[in-house]
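DM from R.C. (forwarded with permission)

"hey, sorry to bug you on a friday — could you get me a structure for this? deadline for the figure draft is monday and I only need the backbone to look sensible"
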Amino acid sequence: MIVTPIKTSVVHVGDDLLRHITTHIPKLSDGSILVVTSKIVAYAEGRWVPKTSARLKAKLVREESDWQMKTKYCWLSIKDGVILGSAGIDESNAHGGLVLLPRDSYASAEKIRAALRTHYKIKKLGVIITDSRLLPLRAGVVGIALGYAGISGIREYRGSKDLNGRMMSYSRTDVADSLATAAVLVMGEGDEVQPLAIIKDAPVEWVEEVDKKELYIDPREDVYAPLWRRVRTWGKFIGPRTKYSKRKKIGG
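My reply, with the result:
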């Protein structure tokens, strides 16, 4: 697998995202995966607000997330079934304002994919919209796929046998976030101005329609559930999308 970052000009609020991509990537081969950082998708969608007060970010975190809790360094929050710092709202490289995540990263990924397949005249194309996140008890950020199109986001091993013939009951590989992490590593987090990356020869399954729920886990079934139950403000999972009550207590 080969992951190549693409250096571009700086993207501003309201810029034409597709034009930006095709200007800096004149050719894209069949079977490629295009990785796009969520920040430039958000800029193109107008998801930027000027920072007018210190309380504005806290207000936006509450509006943008399904659950939130203030911690020492940031808000710990859940948005679209994913644990993120401050609902993914970013101040770095934000032109003095606050950048929110795209409203629907899966829809944005599919829109980009459809337009680029036509533009480049190719059939197999994956698109991943990425952000970065922290992992518990680990320093530094890794990538996360907020939304994707054209590929299956998970590889299933349950029901198959391991090397020693033991039947596997739980094993699955998070393909989407693994690819996002590989891309974020080479794209960088600072002043690299590399908001795009191309992945070639990735071991993926190509699909026409993505199952948006394939990576979601009910918090009650999560391996970290014993930790979550100790958070007094943790709410109950109440729907097919990840939604949480901000008041009901389920743990002591």
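R.C.: lifesaver. DSSP finds six helices and twelve strands in the chain.
me: no worries. Residues 236-252 have pLDDT under 50 and may be disordered.
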